[in-house]
Amino acid sequence: MPVSGMEEMSSKKSAEPSPASAARAERQRLAKEEGAQAMADVERRAIELRQNMQRLRALREAREADENSTGAPVSTPAKKKRVKRIVR
User: What is the 3-state secondary structure (H, E, C) of the chain?
Assistant: First the structure.
């Protein structure tokens, strides 16, 4: 019984992967590494952001506590009165 071309190719397994297969595997490996690095960068930035927010919150709360303890009212700039102008 003759063997068709497709059956013959599928039954053969070469010891070395084809160049296309090797290139695909290398691209997948690089993508996996780059993805892991990107996720680590995102997590690092998120941690830095939370730490900065915590630092700023502590500074704000300390400033507000100091203002409240001294009894000084919070200074707000006085609003200027609007000048009506006659348009000719």
Answer: CCCCHHHHHHHCCCCCCCHHHHHHHHHHHHHHHHHHHHHHHHHHHHHHHHHHHHHHHHHHHHHHHHHHHHCCCCCCCCCCCCCCCCCC
Q: What are 13-49's pLDDT values in tens digits? A: 667 889 999 999 999 999 999 999 999 999 999 999 9
Over residues 51-87, the pLDDT tens digits come to: 999 999 999 999 999 998 886 555 677 788 888 888 8
The CA-based diameter of the chain, rounded to the nearest angstrom, is: 107
Q: How far apart are CA 50 and CA 44, in angstroms?
A: 10
**Cβ atoms 35, 43 nearer than 8 A:** no
CB 25 within 8 A of CB 17: yes
